[in-house]
Amino acid sequence: MQDLFEGVRLVLAWDVLIAVLASAIYGLVVGSLPGLSATMATALLVPVTFYLSPIAAIATIITASAMAIFSGDIPGCLLRIPGTPASAAYTDEAYAMTRKGQAELALGAGLWFSAIGGIVGTISLVLMAPLLAEMALSFSTYEYFWLAFLGLMCATLVARSSPIKAIASMLLGLLFACIGMENPAGTPRFVFGITDLLGGIEPIPALVGVFAVSEVMRAMVTPEPPKLPDRKFGSILAGQWALTKKYQWPMWRGNIVGIIIGVLPGAGADMAAWVSYAMSKKWSKEPEKFGTGHVEGLVEAGASNNASLASGWVPALLFGIPGDTITAIAIGVLYMKGLNPGPTLFTERASSMYALYIIFVLANIIMIPLGILMIRLASKILKAPRSAVMPVIILLCAVGSYATGANLFSVLLVGVFGIVGYVMERNGYPVAALVLGIVMGSMVEQNFVTSLIKSDGSPLPFVERPVSAVLASLTLGALLWSAVVWVFNRARRLKATAAAR
Amino acid sequence: MTDFSRRAVLAGGAALLATPGLAQPRWPARPVQLLCPWAAGGGTDAVLRMIGILLEKELGQPFNVVNRTGGSGVVGHAAISQAQPDGYTLGMITAEICMLHWQGLTEITYRNYTPLSLVNNDAPGVTVNSNSPYRDVKALADAIKASRPGQLKASGTGQGGIWHLALAGWLNAMGLKADHVRWVPSNGAAPAMQDLAAGGLDFTTCSIPEARAMLDANRARALAVMAPARVTAFPAIPTLKEAMGVDYNTGAWRGIAGPPGLPAAVVQTMEVALDKVFKSKEYQDFLLARGFGAVYENAAGFATHLAAADISLGNSMKEAGLAKS
Fold first, then answer.
1. Do A486 and A423 reside in the same domain of the chain?
2. Same domain, yes or no, for A476 and A355?
3. Residues 6+ apart with CB under 8 A from A93
4. Which of B75, B213, B290 is opposite residue A342, by nearest beta carbon?
5. Are residues A288 and A320 in the same domain?
6. What's the pLDDT score for residue B10?
7. pLDDT in tens, B79-122
8. Contacts of B159 in chain A (CB under 8 A)
9. Given the DSSP bridges, would you call strands B63-67 and B32-36 parallel, antiparallel or unpaired?
10. Per-residue pLDDT tens digits for A346-361
11. Distance from CA of B19 to the nearest CA of A (A)
């Protein structure tokens, strides 16, 4: 108890409070710029943390990353450019809502459920940290292979089009993931002598291209839509409580899935959002509405990616294993500030741990007022004429992709993927499945090949180990189930047409 | 009168534009760019950002770190080598510069740089799971010698990465073939340490700071470090020579360098400044806190180091069948 009070005292220091506020604003702005991910936002903060007290340093990272993950929803919703990869899963859905004139509901849902997800994730961090970390530590490459494979299966679930087209786009994504030498053999593949391709296709330029540039191209060939009736941007939080009650189960499911995925090293907010969005559609009472601007998926995935952010700190704090790229940076800062990760952090430095928990909650609470402010500012974009907005989007895409590696090649990639995305969409191939293939491809391959190396080529351990057996049956079950449903539907449709004749 | 003064101003302007070659101002007269070939958030980025801050204090101009990533480090390394040799674009080169060209991935070698100083070297460790039967490195080495080729598994980074070469070099030094222990490629040190803790590997050869959290959590045990002397931050871990009499050492080193043909004034100023930066309390505290190895060489020493590292890493790669040619 004394540790708790000491923790409160540590947080209430003026330098910590200023750090929280400043990094909140910083995180909101960076997250809302397309191409600049939450990871980038955190990395750029590191030199600043040199000058801060340990608690203030960690506070800036916690706050900025939480804000950036939420504010990535804003350009995704308004312009169809996901601000961070974690928003990519439901960008299409949110943008469809904006086109239906429900931008405030979509953004409000993003904000409200992000905050809830963040707080639930924090509670899980407090209550279950040691238990969860123990579980995550027993995962070997066999288990990770099944997890990544399960992630790939989401491709068929997130898509609105036929599953065959979804699988085709996912496979194209896997082909892109083969490029480069970041593969288990360390051998360059499909690089055609181009040095820039050695490192492979980075997800950020790919997803900025297929989502944003293709959208600009589409806008260029379609006539300007009738101007939205000039109305006041509605209340952002109105209706969120009703949504919370209506979609209570999806929300909890999102929180729990987010927490579990966050705890697993290497699987972060991006994967949490994908899996939750797919689950939401799978279990929804009205899956046919998904993709047309339906808020249910936003609720679940929005809660999920923020929940994973908090629980990603569990393996980081206990074992110094990064749950995602953001905590990878945070671990460096923890060492710098003498808060070495490890079990002792929870016993000997308990007050610092409480301070950390309080900052998590604080960050998620101030997210609501600051987020409303940010949404209000950003919503002005909807009123601007298209001829003014589209060039700015292209500029933002170029700047954002250049910023990831100060490399002009990424800008070129954005253009190429813009064309790929445009052609695919015109022909009914879902681009989200392509992005999923690029993001998860290397994880599937890496874990598959290293598993086989370790087992001297024997496939048995993939189903022999208890956890991997459970994951394997889940994956195969999902695969078989979709196939059965598809065959059944097809048979019924054939019968119906035969009868109609 | 007005006409005359305007002409004078024009002439003066033209003269100003033409002179920078003649009256050279003291370097650095404007901000300097430090290129980092690896992504923000990693170890190289952390070291370079620290050095950038301290150089700014020393020389009074901002030293801005720019992450020029891509191509497994080739893009950033090439950018440093091909920069304008005016001293305003420098960067950090890492052990990979003595590896990439052996794999045939780039034409650039260490000879395409002006070395300024070596500022850090992280030595590889030999780390086992805390439940492992091997109490010391001698026991592990005996087990390796007694094992069938490919029976034991080790990891720490990707195929052909620096820790893979450390394993190959160590096995060679014991008189074994470089692939006697099967290398399990991993996506960096963190997943390898995770797999070691999950019981999927026999040992890892990543650096001690990368293994540190698992060591502190009593999930792993470090048996030895492949360095000429014990690492300051980890005084309890013996060197290979102390523990089993094998004198083999290597490491993931990092140094500051510029393009070839850097002006002598820049080299001298940087050498003095980097010497002060390295000895500063801030830098030493930073290295100690992160567990990074404090190893320093001046410009001449760094050049010797590069030449030696190029040969030894090249040999390890040829032994392990990783080099093209």
1. no
2. no
3. A106, A277, A290, A291, A293, A294, A297, A298
4. B213
5. yes
6. 47
7. 999 999 999 999 999 999 999 999 888 889 999 999 999 999 99
8. 184-187
9. parallel
10. 766 778 888 888 998 9
11. 32
Contacts of A39 in chain B (CB under 8 A): 40-41
**B66 CA to centre of own chain:** 17
**pTM confidence score:** 0.76
Closest CA to B68 of B83, B84, B50, B57: B83
Q: What are phi and psi of B63, to 5 degrees?
A: -115, 100
Q: Which of A137, A199, A332 sits opposite B197 (nearest CB)?
A: A137
CB contact under 8 Å between B201 and A340, yes or no, is no
The number of C-beta contacts closer than 8 angstroms across A and B is 163
Question: Ranked by mean pLDDT, which of A74-83, A357-366, A479-488 comes out on top?
Answer: A357-366
Residue of chain A nearest B74, judged by CA positions: A195
Backbone angles phi, psi at B32, to 5 degrees: -110, 140
Q: Does the distance separating the beta carbons of B194 and A454 come in below 8 Å? A: no
The domain tally of chain A equals 2
Residue A229 lies in a domain: no
Q: What is the ipTM of this complex?
A: 0.76
What residues in A contact B217, CB-CB < 8 Å? 318-320, 342-343
At the fourth CATH level, the homologous superfamily of domain B125-244 is Periplasmic binding protein-like II (3.40.190.10)
Average pLDDT on A430-456 reads: 85
Q: Which pLDDT score is estimated for A159?
A: 60
List all residues 6 or more positions away from B196 whose beta carbon is below 8 Å from its beta carbon: B127, B128, B129, B155, B203, B204, B214, B219, B220
DSSP for A408-432, please give it.
HHHHHHHHHHHHHHHHHHHTT--HH
Token pair in block for residue A280: 């939401």
pLDDT at B20 > cutoff 50: no
